[in-house]
Write a structure and sequence with these properties.
By secondary structure, the protein is mainly β. The chain has no helices and 11 strands. Strands 2, 4, 5, 6, 9, 10 and 11 form a 7-stranded mixed β-sheet that branches. The chain is globular, with a radius of gyration of 13 Å. The protein starts with a strand and ends with a strand.
């Protein structure tokens, strides 16, 4: 089974930056997709950014222009660089390998999450 772990969360002021990292026990170039999700209190888990096996990237509209997803294949590590953070970006950020939602249940390999809190 694949092990996944995120790190880098913290508390920042609006307008500041944070970088998250995700280490996995699998070669990320060998999986279908790697992605960052986040979940705010009382809300559903939502996609932030996704990188497919071929390197193609999809960002949530809220992340475009402010967040950058990248990958270091040699280190089996994925990053999410966030700048110009807003209060609405607050939530638990999860790293996922081959995430899939079926019949209301999440599948794939997920990290434990790292908290990002943005305040005014």
């Amino acid at each position: 089974q694949v092990q996944v772990a995120e790190s880098g969360g913290g508390s920042v002021k609006a307008g500041e930056s944070l970088s998250l990292s995700c280490g996995a026990s699998v070669a990320m170039v060998a999986v279908i997709a790697t992605a960052w999700y986040r979940q705010a209190p009382g809300k559903e888990r939502e996609l932030v950014a996704r990188m497919s096996r071929d390197g193609s990237i999809v960002y949530a509209d809220s992340a475009k222009g402010r967040f950058t997803i990248s990958r270091d294949n040699a280190k089996n590590t994925m990053y999410l660089h966030m700048h110009s953070l807003e209060v609405e970006d607050t939530g638990i950020y999860y790293c996922a390998i081959n995430p899939a939602l079926k019949n209301g249940r999440w599948y794939g390999s997920w990290g434990q999450g790292t908290q990002v809190t943005v305040s005014v």
